[in-house]
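agent> step 3/5: call structure_predict on target 'Glutaredoxin-like protein' (Pelagomonas calceolata).
agent> reason: downstream docking stage needs a structural representation; sequence fetched in step 2, passing through unchanged.
tool.input:
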Amino acid sequence: MRRQLLALTTLAARALQPPRTRARHTRHFSVSGRIYEGDGPTIELFTKEGCTLCDAAKAVLDALRNDAPHSLVAVDITDQDKKQLWDRYKYDIPVLAIDGVYWTKHRVTEGDARAAIDEATAGEFRERPGEPDASRLER
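tool.output (status=ok):
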């Protein structure tokens, strides 16, 4: 009897409390910004928070920054003002561009990066085929 009374009291107390809401972690931290600056071409890394392939691309480029000078700038495609980039690249990050011209996506090797930076430094870099555009595929 005592247990039943305690259980009823507990249920009544819970019923009178306001409902609990779970805090949603919707806060977004942009990863946009200059990663490092150097002489030579500027490489844009289209990325988002938590992208491990993007981290690998950054590591490859960072290893070349003294031998093949360049600047590296991250562009977070999830930033509110980057909706068009999100629509294009959401399935294919990392996407990389050199001086605003599409270069490659997904994985980059040190050899490919060195060749592209050397081409850009010599003024001979040309857009590569295969720039992703998810918005075109979703129409």
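agent> step 4/5: record observation. The first strand starts at residue 33 and ends at 36.
agent> proceeding.
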